[in-house]
Design brief:
The protein is mainly alpha-helical. Helices cover about 75% and strands about 0% of the residues. The N terminus is likely disordered.
Length: about 280
């Protein structure tokens, strides 16, 4: 793979690692029955980590603040869509569709908003990735009426991912400090789900057991993964960073098969390979 001049091997490695972390925390979220409480715990950790980091870094440049505010709202939409898609479909189908949709939209959005032009290989990757997404939607052989809600929710989740990726990519470049921007975003986003849970189920946040442990672990992983992505967006084109991160679909496929015991037939194997190939071409 020929790297973009700003896309160094170190940046590539970091973003690929972030993708693995992202797949792991999503698998944890899929396993938790009380996902609202799990996301509340993630939010609590996000609030504490964001506030503590801001004490050290200070606020990002004022031009970046509106982007962080908008992104926090988009992240809430994404979290709600993600929870809904996991209620409706299998992890190794909904996750690749959601994550694979994002680079397509980011590539188009970055062209118009950040004036980033994709080379020929990347354009070919868009076509291959689109074919992989269609294959995933039809992984059972045909798209039945029963599949439509899960596929639709996954596509909507992907659109939310693309939206906050573009907003954050533009915002973090105006912040002059990716860590300050990340901290402000986490602080703004963090309190939303804890507040909802405290209103709806006041005692559930303090319930001991697997939900608490998994929620806190997922929170730590998501904070680490997205901080890496924000950092990378200051050093490489948005579409390439988004595409590299979404190689997490391969990790998700393995997790779904090996640990969640989800059936992964030949059609889904082929579709996942197409998605991964398209993503690599986009980042070529």
């Amino acid at each position: 793979m020929v790297l973009h001049p700003a896309l160094t091997p170190f940046v590539v490695g970091m973003v690929l690692g972030a993708g693995v972390l992202h797949a792991v925390w999503n698998a944890i979220a899929k396993q938790v029955d009380d996902r609202l409480t799990a996301f509340a715990l993630i939010g609590m950790l996000s609030t504490v980590a964001g506030g503590a980091t801001l004490v050290v870094t200070g606020l990002p440049d004022g031009a970046a603040v509106p982007y962080a505010v908008v992104s926090a709202g988009l992240h809430v939409v994404y979290d709600l869509a993600l929870m809904h898609s996991y209620r409706l479909g299998a992890f190794n189908q909904t996750y690749p569709i959601a994550r694979g949709t994002s680079p397509l939209v980011v590539a188009v959005g970055a062209y118009f908003l950040a004036h980033e032009r994709l080379p020929g290989a990347a354009l070919a990757g868009v076509v291959v990735l689109a074919g992989g997404l269609m294959s995933l939607a039809l992984s059972s052989g045909r798209l039945s009426r029963a599949d439509l809600p899960a596929v639709g929710a996954a596509v909507f989740t992907g659109l939310a991912i693309a939206s906050y990726t573009l907003v954050d990519g533009l915002g973090v470049r105006r912040a002059h400090d990716p860590y300050a921007y990340a901290a402000l975003l986490f602080l703004l986003l963090g309190p939303v789900f804890p507040a909802v849970v405290l209103v709806r189920r006041p005692l559930s946040v303090w319930r001991a057991g697997a939900v608490v442990r998994r929620g806190l672990v997922a929170g730590a992983l998501t904070l680490a993964a997205y901080t890496i992505v924000l950092w990378a967006q200051t050093r490489a084109p948005l579409a390439e960073v988004a595409a590299l991160r979404e190689t997490s679909v391969i990790s998700a496929a393995l997790i779904g098969t090996l640990f969640l015991k989800e059936r992964f037939g030949a059609r889904r194997v082929t579709a996942a390979v197409l998605v991964a190939t398209g993503i690599v071409l986009i980042s070529a």
